[in-house]
Amino acid sequence: MRVIRGRAATPDTDRAATRKLLDAVADSGTPAVRAWTPHRQLAFGRRDANETGYEAARAAARERGFPPVERSVGGRAVAYTGTTVAFASLEPVEDSRSGLTDRYEAAVDTVVAALSSLGVDAERGEPPDSFCPGDYSVQAPCSTGNGERAGKLAGIAQRVTAGAAMVSGVVTVADREEIAEVLDPVYDALGVPFDPKSVGSVAAAGGPNDPDRVARALEDAIVDGRPTTVERLVDTDAGRET
To answer: Model's pTM, two decimal places?
Structure first.
């Protein structure tokens, strides 16, 4: 299994790297995984682009220091602060019409296992009016034990092409307040219900606030003991491997 670490120089080239990886999995039949911290951005889904308030939502994101981009998978808008972890598990498939639900279910179990290994009492589900709402999400209670509602930690999406499937997602490590503050006006402009208090984080749920630890835990859970080769993308903006 190929393990790809780091990120490319820009949001556009980073997304292109994942698309190329999906094509490579289809061509070679070798599965791959990425777990990394994307550039700071506000990633809109295809449904968002069709809303009448889309341009206002993009402006709201930009005004708060989150460059707006569009992604090819997933539902509603997601904010990446620079400490937010993304993951992508890519597997060859023979029939693109089958296995969708099984892959989603397995991905939820994998994320729960990864977060549990970090001391987070994670479980499937999400609070009402969460960011990027979906059936395959992961939540956890706050670590204070004061009865606060659970916060959403992760959302999962899937893309299937001829020969390969990519199950991907986002995990909020920290910065829950900053994420809520930018998503509130964005979702308001889109006309989508959103409760800022629904945003959780690994750190608030008792886990580490270190994105690298979260990324490696996700990576390990996806690899699940299979032999790996590790490769690195180069962030040319930083002038170093990441």
So the answer is: 0.91
